[in-house]
Amino acid sequence: MKIDGKRFRSIWIDEADGWTVRIIDQTRLPWSVEIPRLTTVDEVAFAIRSMHVRGAPLIGATAAYGVALAMRADSSNEALDATIKQLGATRPTAINLRWALERMLRVLRDHPPDERMDVAYAEAAAICEEDVAANRAIGTHGLPLILGRAKMQGRVNILTHCNAGWIATVDWGTALAPIYMAHDQGIDVHVFVDETRPRNQGAALTAWELGKHGVAHTVIVDNAGGHLMQRGLIDLVIVGADRVTRTGDVANKIGTYLKALAARDNGVPFYVALPSSTIDWRIADGIVEIPIEEREPGEVSTITGQARDGGIATIRLTPWESAAINPAFDVTPARLVSSLVTERGICAANEASLRSMFPQEDEVY
Ligand code: MRU
User: Fold this and answer.
1) How many domains does the chain have?
2) What's the gap in Å between 93 CA and the centre of ligand 1?
3) Which of 50, 85, 137, 353 is in Cβ range 3.0-4.6 Å of 348 for a Cys bridge?
């Protein structure tokens, strides 16, 4: 996608040196576009943990390049195992991380150490290309959900939560891919963007990227969605996912579940867009089996924004003595999901439908 007319992906190899990994620092958006360089596996682990890169597919792609950087420094079996372990511990919920690391390990262990660096860079690049293709396909499959509404009524109002746009993936995004395609085809789409406390991925990131692409949008507080649905102001909800069980339960950013409940109560379709790298074929019960990341309480008790003088400031919101907890994801049970939008097409959120869509996927493990 584009930033001010210039084409970008969210991760790439530096053209000049051919090996360092460039990312867009998402902790600096929307105030400035900064493009740091990652040169070691430690830097990659830090970038993932501290959410300089975030979003399930991008976390996986970044970890894959982290393996490549590690193999550049030391391609022994011991280093390979340590790298997989180190990167695997950075964030617990997005399954794309484990998916990418297991894929890298599977490929690399069949190669002697002196070949591993080149193979790792090639595999990481392949993961990135496949992510772009999958998200483009998600856009194509999801587009009719919007077009159908547009034919009936003109403007289509869509609610989304967190950021499942191009900067959460390598390109296109998941939930936002059909929206970008609808917009590019001249459909009048308007997006209600949940601010997504505590880190404000909606207010800071989704609003930024929709704005850069010229998509009409309005930021709302997280609690406004149910009210807007009751007033008939939301035609459909579409969100991304960090992990989907083989039975169709969906882990996504905290607050997603409440939107699904409100959507069900108001007869609003609730769609989840995901590439197959987000499906965890090993588990069936999302509420019991998906590990939910607990982040720093400080993300709840403070907020970061731009002061009038242009400086970025973090201020305290809550009394100094008040405790806070910060579960970063929740699980929406499959029964509340109208459909899953994948790179192979749209399917019901249940095991039979997912298996018919991806007949061989679970054999990978
Ligand atoms: O904590 P984050 O910002 O990594 O969480 C991201 C989300 O919850 C996204 O909605 C999800 O990863 C889908 S990204 C295409």
Assistant:
1) 3
2) 10
3) 353
